[in-house]
Specification:
Blueprint lengths: L6 E2 L5 E2 L17 H18 L4 H12 L2 H12 L3 H25 L27
Antiparallel strand pairs: 1-2
Helix pairs in contact: 1-2, 1-4, 2-3
């Protein structure tokens, strides 16, 4: 769920999802899976920052739930209407959330080698024959 792609809009706002991108997976009226994951993260951040009753939070959440490009454009316009300081703060918070989520996902897949049997055994690599050794 790590959408680190940045999109520079006309107003100079950096999004964590690329607006209006289509891919082979998504149809003409749907945003792709990675964008939806990033939009879900942004939706949580906007709701935490502005509250669930905020128009921006509702529009971003609607775009996340529906996955439609039309809802994404509406959410983008609503987000653009926010003051610059608020967009910057929300963007920074969303980036921190994404980094924490990525770290948690990577940490959960790490293998603990200490519990394997034979962990203390040494592997002996034979020396190559003389004719393969450099002179």
């Amino acid at each position: 769920m790590t959408s680190s792609e940045m999109h520079d809009s006309r107003g100079g706002v950096n999004y964590f999802f690329e607006v209006g991108r289509s891919s082979g997976e998504a149809g003409m009226n749907e945003i792709d899976t990675r964008d939806r994951q990033a939009l879900g993260l942004l939706s949580e951040t906007v709701t935490a920052e502005l509250g669930p009753a905020s128009v921006v939070a509702r529009e971003v959440n609607r775009a996340y739930r529906s996955g439609r490009s039309a809802d994404l454009r509406t959410a983008s316009a609503a987000f653009d209407a926010l003051p610059g300081w608020q967009r910057t703060r929300i963007s920074g918070d969303a980036a921190r959330r994404a980094k924490r989520l990525k770290a948690r996902l990577l940490q959960s897949t790490a293998r603990d080698w200490r519990d394997l049997s034979g962990r203390d055994e040494r592997i002996t690599i034979p020396t190559p024959p003389r004719f393969l050794r450099p002179k």
